[in-house]
Amino acid sequence: MTARRIFGVETEYGITCAQPPAAPGHEQQVITADDAARYLFRRVVALGRSSNVFLRNGARLYLDVGSHPEYASAECDDVHQLVVNDRAGERILDEMTEEANGLLAEEGIAGTIHLFKNNVDSAGNSFGCHENYLVRRRRDFPAMGEALVPFFITRQILTGAGHIRPRAGGGASYAFSQRADQMWDAMSSATTRSRPIINTRDEPHGDAELYRRMHVIVGDSSVAETTTMLKVGMTELLLAVLEDGVKIRDLVLAEPMRAIREISHDTTATVPVELATGRRLSALDIQEEFYARVRGHLDAEGRSAELTAVQRKVLELWERGLRALRTQDHSLVETELDWAIKGRLLERYRAKHTLGLDDPRVARLSLAYHDISAVRGLAPSLVARGLMARITTDEEIADAVTHPPASTRAKLRGDFVAAAQERRRDITVDWVHLKINDAAQRTVVLKDPFSPVDERVDALMAALQA
Ligand SMILES: Nc1ncnc2c1ncn2[C@@H]1O[C@H](COP(=O)(O)OP(=O)(O)OP(=O)(O)O)[C@@H](O)[C@H]1O
Ligand SMILES: [Mg+2]
């Protein structure tokens, strides 16, 4: 075990409505992405008058005006639990999509709404998958940033979702990450260039004297459970090592924002980038360093034997992913890492039909990889054919759709929301507050994200059920 840590993942989904061409002489109602999102949230809004709600599983579901549906998982304290909760979010949104498609059909509108767990739409707009990690305030966070920025910039060679990138002069090439190019755009105008990759939010959603919430916006959304597991798990282990006081300062990049793009575009992962020290190392070299230092510290402290099963899986996949790149034998991770799973799928399809990477049919297949639909998406059939690994069960996911993680503050919130729904009581909830909207306006502030029990909440629940 490493020190307990809270984490949660926010996923923004891409949304579109595919419509057949209108029959000659017939008008057809066009469903824009905004319209589709409104159909998606119609029942949520009808139930709670708002498109920003907390669910009985502790998560937050919301839609900002004219933007992407977002699901923010409840607070988790274990990587396996987080993967389950992230998948539960997909199921919830998939059910909402099916319902919205039913509404379209009822209204006689031809079209099918699709939700994509990816990071860029057909118009080139980018949307995110943000990771949140609780960090202890007493640690020197800026110093940790010296390790974290190069870590996040190079992590994409393992956890990138794979991206078909149009080339300027025509054609296309495969890149590790969908998000890397967008980060450049988002950041080239910012003054502190590395800041937007990770930041500590003003709202730690907890006791501000003890904790910070590290907000990471640089990652790709992950489809394969094993990729989500690695993305969050390797970060958790690095944070544990840094919080132990280990300093990693010699891997600072000379130009992080340039490196993030170059690394994404170099699928050999071996082209060097420049470090602040003047040394030149590849993304693969840098990740091997991070792996060796994390592993080395845990071994030296005698802690490796105490790691949880999922933490051991994370270390094993981290090492194997690096070996796959070093040996250029992608078969080592071809069922576990998104860029490899998707890359292989696209290669097979192209070979069979003799298509270029820039062919629209290849783009459609690539998009279908991210479609969260249980019927239209590719993931279920890839799993069934042994081409995509899983670490969760359908039962675990079904349970997490309606039940909060039992070991964190999410338990208090989820149970409170469930009780209010059953009693039809009006409440207001956010990450730290639980409030009954009646004359007494009773409110409880939950500053400890680790605690699943609280006597004040017991009293509040009693008041709710009275
Ligand atoms: N103390 C905490 N430390 C780390 N993560 C937390 C903590 N409390 C909550 N979280 C996680 O942080 C995420 C917050 O999601 P939310 O979308 O509300 O984020 P935000 O960044 O505050 O808001 P917005 O997306 O509106 O900018 C959730 O996934 C939640 O589980
Ligand atoms: Mg958010």
From TrEMBL:
Domain of life: Bacteria
One Pfam family per UniProt: Pup_ligase
The keyword Magnesium appears for this protein: yes
Location of the active site: D64 (proton acceptor)
Any one Gene Ontology cellular component term annotated for this protein: proteasome complex
GO molecular function terms listed in the Swiss-Prot or TrEMBL record: ATP binding; ligase activity, forming carbon-nitrogen bonds; magnesium ion binding; ubiquitin-like protein transferase activity
Annotated binding of ATP, by residue: R60, S73, W431
Key words of the record: ATP-binding, Ligase, Magnesium, Metal-binding, Nucleotide-binding, Proteasome, Ubl conjugation pathway
Reaction equations catalysed: ATP + [prokaryotic ubiquitin-like protein]-L-glutamate + [protein]-L-lysine = ADP + phosphate + N(6)-([prokaryotic ubiquitin-like protein]-gamma-L-glutamyl)-[protein]-L-lysine
GO terms, biological process: modification-dependent protein catabolic process; proteasomal protein catabolic process; protein pupylation
Pathway(s) this gene product operates in, as recorded in its UniProt entry: Protein modification; protein pupylation; Protein degradation; proteasomal Pup-dependent pathway
Principal EC category: ligase
The UniProt record lists the keyword Ligase: yes
Record: residues binding Mg(2+): E10, Y62, E70
EC number: 6.3.1.19
Role summary: Catalyzes the covalent attachment of the prokaryotic ubiquitin-like protein modifier Pup to the proteasomal substrate proteins, thereby targeting them for proteasomal degradation. This tagging system is termed pupylation. The ligation reaction involves the side-chain carboxylate of the C-terminal glutamate of Pup and the side-chain amino group of a substrate lysine.
Family annotation (PANTHER family): PUP DEAMIDASE/DEPUPYLASE, PUP--PROTEIN LIGASE
Misc: The reaction mechanism probably proceeds via the activation of Pup by phosphorylation of its C-terminal glutamate, which is then subject to nucleophilic attack by the substrate lysine, resulting in an isopeptide bond and the release of phosphate as a good leaving group.
Family of the protein in this entry: Belongs to the Pup ligase/Pup deamidase family. Pup-conjugating enzyme subfamily.
Protein's name according to its UniProt entry: Pup--protein ligase
Source species of the chain: Georgenia muralis
